[in-house]
Every structure is written in structure tokens, then in C-alpha cells.
């Protein structure tokens, strides 16, 4: 249930009304915007008399929400969520966020060298896998704890915040010094892991599962947010379809739909979606035009010898060129007001 309050409602009256709802067995999520204040009632609201709510002096309007996700729902939080990291980096403020780096951390020279190059090209964050979920048990599984240490070394040398994937709640202690924790597609519905991440005060980059609907995707975000951590970044990384030319099929329509249904930032992973180097740039352009807040792109210093996903990784030289083109495209779209991802009809 969503309650829009009348302008000028005092904090005391809002608190008094919230206590009434608390006694009814529901929690109240208050959002204070520039034009209005909205109360979102979370829990079983079926027994709450809507006429009783409408009769309250400070209430302007009331409506029930059918979607099962509440905290991730734009109806409860009309303004876009902007996530600010301790170092001042921002995601979701209307600018283009670029997250770049190799699929896997392989050595200090590799990760530090790539970090220096992508920073020089304008990347805001460094990505790199320390723990790697692979389809084959015989494939490279990552350097694990050593990989995290190398990522932290790259951060020391460049100042870039690091983004890396967690695979198990048992690894949480190792991720205390990670700036953004990534949840991979295979773990999107690992609900026990999501619950643990909900207890943190740290941004979580949540990737959509290979065959999950957008409602299921948002419900996974809800798991994290319901635990108290509302710093969630949604990542569209392609879904599995009957098409086999590409590794996955990038669902461009997901971007405006997510921006319409949720207030959370949306980034796109064109590398995993395509699985092909030359498709990274056009898919990135399409994502920006559809309203994505950022991109997460795989960059490797020597893709032909990469221990994982070399076929979809671009070189630092290619990233230099692509990053410039992406920022130009973003500037043009922003000037025309065409980069929000939500079109009024």
C-alpha cells in the first residue's frame, strides 16, 4: 500500500500515523521528495481498511500495490536512487559509469597494468574476478583470496574502486575491503547469500539470471533490500534464448522496463551478453540509448592468452577508443533528454 501525504504534513503527524500502522502489524517506509512525502506500507496490508487510511487528516491519496517487490518499486520511491561510495564515486546520478577490467585476475602485472590503462581512458571502477564460477570443474577457477589481494594492490596504484564477484556467504570476511560486491547470474536466486548481503552497508551489483524474468530479478533485489541494504545496482547481462550466434541475447527492453518499475540504478554487461569482441561497442551504444546508468566491460591486456573469456574481451587500446565514443554518445543523448530509459506516452 502506498500513501501520498498532503503537503505541509508535520513530522510529528507523520510519526503518529506511522505508529498506528506499526500497531496493525506492518512496517512503514517513508520517502521524502521535493514535492511530496510517500509512505510505503510493507507487510500484510490486506486487512487494513483503505477508507480508514483515506480519512486521516494528512493523507492525500492511497493505492494498493500489486507487485510483490516493495522496496525496489518506484511507486514507493519515485526518485532515482543515487549510490555514493566513500571515495565520492557516484552511480545513478545521470552520468555514465564505466566499470572495466579483466574477467579474471591472473597476476599483479596484468591487473595493475589493465587498471592503469582503463583509468587513463576514463573508467570509474575496476572489475576483476578473483573467484570464478565456471561451467567446467577443470576450467580456471580464479586466484581466490590472492586475487582479492591483487585487486586491492591495483586500487592502491590507481585509486579505482574495485568490483568483484562473491560466490558464497562463507567468503564474506574476505570481501570486507571490496568496494562493490558483485552477485553473478548463477547466484541471482541464492537467497541465503542475498540475505547475508542485505546485512551489509556496501553496494551490491546484482546480475540477472540466465533465464529469469524481470519480476524475479527485482524480487532478488528485494531480498537484499529487505535486510536493510538498499544500495543495489541492477545489471542486465543477457539471457539465454534459442539464438546461438551470440553467447547470450542482450535484453535491451529490460533497461527501460527496469527504470520504469524500479528506482535502482541499471548497468549493462555487453561483454557477457555478446561473447564476441566486435559486438561490445554497438551493444554498449544501444544500452546507453535505452537509458542505462553504466556499463561493465571486460578489458584484457592480451585477450588471446586470457585464462577466461578472452573471446569477449577488448584490449586497452580498443577501450580507449570505445570509452571516448560512449561518452560522446551519452553527452548527445543527455542534451536531448533521451537518456533516461523511461519514455512518457
From TrEMBL:
Domain DAHP synthetase I/KDSA: 83-329
Keyword Transferase carried by entry: yes
Keywords: Transferase
Gene: aroF
GO molecular function: 3-deoxy-7-phosphoheptulonate synthase activity
Top-level taxon in the UniProt lineage: Bacteria
Enzyme class: transferase
Protein name: 3-deoxy-7-phosphoheptulonate synthase
InterPro entries (UniProt xref): Aldolase_TIM, Class-I_DAHP_synthase, DAHP1/KDSA, DAHP_snth_FXD, DAHP_syn_2
Provenance organism: Solibaculum intestinale
Amino acid at each position: 500500500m502506498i500513501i501520498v501525504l498532503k503537503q505541509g504534513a508535520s513530522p510529528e503527524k507523520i510519526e503518529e500515523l506511522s505508529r498506528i500502522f506499526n500497531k496493525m502489524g506492518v512496517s512503514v517506509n517513508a520517502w521524502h521528495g521535493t514535492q511530496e512525502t510517500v509512505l510505503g506500507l510493507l507487510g500484510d496490508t490486506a486487512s487494513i481498511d483503505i477508507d480508514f487510511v483515506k480519512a486521516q487528516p494528512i493523507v492525500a491519496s492511497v493505492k494498493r500495490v500489486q507487485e510483490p517487490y516493495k522496496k525496489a518499486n518506484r511507486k514507493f520511491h519515485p526518485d532515482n536512487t543515487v549510490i555514493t561510495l566513500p571515495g565520492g564515486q557516484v552511480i545513478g546520478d545521470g552520468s555514465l559509469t564505466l566499470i572495466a577490467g579483466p574477467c579474471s585476475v591472473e597476476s599483479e602485472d596484468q591487473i595493475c597494468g589493465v587498471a592503469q590503462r582503463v583509468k587513463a581512458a576514463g573508467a570509474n571502477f575496476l572489475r576483476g574476478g578473483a573467484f570464478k564460477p565456471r561451467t567446467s570443474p577443470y576450467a580456471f577457477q580464479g586466484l581466490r583470496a590472492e586475487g582479492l589481494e591483487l585487486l586491492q594492490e591495483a586500487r592502491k596504484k590507481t585509486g579505482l574502486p574495485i568490483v568483484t564477484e562473491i560466490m558464497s556467504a562463507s567468503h564474506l570476511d574476505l570481501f570486507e575491503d571490496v568496494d562493490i560486491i558483485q552477485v553473478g547470474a548463477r547466484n541471482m536466486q541464492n537467497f541465503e547469500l542475498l540475505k547475508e548481503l542485505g546485512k551489509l552497508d556496501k553496494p551490491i551489483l546484482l546480475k540477472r539470471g540466465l533465464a529469469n524474468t524481470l519480476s524475479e530479478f527485482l524480487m532478488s533485489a528485494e531480498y537484499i533490500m529487505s535486510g536493510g541494504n538498499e544500495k543495489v545496482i541492477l545489471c542486465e547481462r543477457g539471457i539465454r534464448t534459442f539464438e546461438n550466434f551470440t553467447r547470450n541475447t542482450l535484453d535491451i527492453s529490460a533497461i527501460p522496463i527496469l527504470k520504469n518499475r524500479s528506482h535502482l540504478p541499471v548497468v549493462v554487461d555487453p561483454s557477457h551478453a555478446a561473447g564476441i569482441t566486435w559486438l561490445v561497442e554497438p551493444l554498449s551504444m544501444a544500452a546507453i540509448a535505452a537509458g542505462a546508468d553504466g556499463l561493465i566491460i571486460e578489458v584484457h591486456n592480451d585477450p588471446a592468452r586470457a585464462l577466461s573469456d578472452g573471446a569477449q574481451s577488448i584490449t586497452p587500446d580498443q577501450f580507449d577508443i570505445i570509452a571516448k565514443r560512449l561518452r560522446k554518445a551519452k553527452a548527445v543523448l543527455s542534451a536531448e533528454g533521451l537518456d533516461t530509459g523511461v519514455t512518457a506516452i
